[in-house]
Amino acid sequence: MVTLVEIDSPDDPRLADYRDLRDVELRKSLEAAEGLFLAEGEKVVRRATEAGFAPRSFLMAPRWLDGLADVLAASEAPCYVVSEALAEQVTGFHVHRGALASLARRPLPTVESVLSGARSILMLEDIVDHTNVGAIFRCAAGLGFDAVLLAPRCADPLYRRSIKVAMGTVFSVPWTRLPDWYDALPTLESAGFTTVALTLSADSTDIEEAVRGLDKVALVLGSEGHGLSEHWERAASRRAIIPMHAGIDSLNVAAATAVACYVTSRR
Amino acid sequence: MVTLVEIDSPDDPRLADYRDLRDVELRKSLEAAEGLFLAEGEKVVRRATEAGFAPRSFLMAPRWLDGLADVLAASEAPCYVVSEALAEQVTGFHVHRGALASLARRPLPTVESVLSGARSILMLEDIVDHTNVGAIFRCAAGLGFDAVLLAPRCADPLYRRSIKVAMGTVFSVPWTRLPDWYDALPTLESAGFTTVALTLSADSTDIEEAVRGLDKVALVLGSEGHGLSEHWERAASRRAIIPMHAGIDSLNVAAATAVACYVTSRR
């Protein structure tokens, strides 16, 4: 059973997990150092706890308590009850979705365990925008992809903005970081996946052709700015494009991922 | 030939078009009142002028002058040359793409002229997020859609953020506002388009089935939050979904648009 704790000072040290949510750099280092992440909004907080993440604490204004009553009842973590003005003062923005929770990160699973039983996966190289990472997870979940593997420099799926755009699917789609960028694609090939890089290369074929009839597929996606590294592009066993209308060379990475996942899911 | 004008005071009234670019509400009213829009970055500024929009002025630090020399040479508008610090002070952010231009809006074309010769179009109801509007235009352009029609409350394609996310495709894809929300869909049907609403309705069919073999198609898309109004949903002659994996009900609107445009472009 949760303990409700009313707090009326913005300087209360128990609010440390919730400070300055708009300061991306500060949050990144604080969340890594403390091993926490933040969930925002009733639906997302619920999904995080349902996925088995352990709450460190909750923070909300009184009017949000009822909506999460069952989640709070099932938790041992404290719930800090604050005014909306104080929540805004601490977090640095108007928390219009109401409830926040700070949850403990878990150790990342091994690549092997994430791939176990998977038939369609995404490999993200250096996608640095949290919105894009979130949108890609939502596509993966909606279009039946089984797992997501992230290169070391890819943005964090458990960052608040990623979680929100992903509608919490970062909790349900298995994912991990690739410990080894250099040999990532050969590792996937050894595990029986055909690696298909989405890239504007001279030998790229239509994505429908590239995935047709394949069993296990890893779609390989590069960064928003300069696309895939040459190393990953050449290491992939196939290169594919989404055919574009004259004069336009590409879609944004989330839109391209949606189309590529859709096509691959119907291979 | 452009006139280069060095400006060193942030209060110079000639910089009025460029003030407070991060204040969305202020910008919306200023840009509507003055009949202007802003383009940001060499590529986008170039595309705007190539599309025939008349510059009111340019604003840039000296190091960006060379890259746009040809555009500036072809223009009669003044180019305000400022330090990067002054640009930041006036606009309210670090202009890392360098060049800005203020351009004159043009009267919106009629619906009839936008539809002339079109075979695949998008109708956006109340998509209020500039990023989504921009991403949708980029999809439309890349996947060969001929025009975009916007309901009265849809976000502005010429807002700086929309233009940027669209990579300037808002200048090349014909678009206009629907003057009449209520009868918009019957108007399209009268013009020979089958209206296909993307929506989770009891009678929605798979998008591939819904568009198969159709000649002129209008894909109808609703807002990010609550989807289509019931009026537009029922006014459409067909309702369609992108089949989703168990437990996930939808993609975000830009991803869904990408998939729907892709499928429709191959009907």
From TrEMBL, chains A, B:
It comes from the Bacteria. GO terms for biological process: methylation. Transmembrane segments: none annotated. The keyword Ligase does not apply. CDD domains: SpoU-like_rRNA-MTase. Residues 33-91 form the MRM3-like substrate binding domain. GO terms for molecular function: methyltransferase activity. Keywords: Methyltransferase, Transferase. Pfam families: MRM3-like_sub_bind, SpoU_methylase. PANTHER family: RRNA METHYLASE, RRNA METHYLTRANSFERASE 3. This is TrmH family RNA methyltransferase. It comes from Nocardioides eburneus.
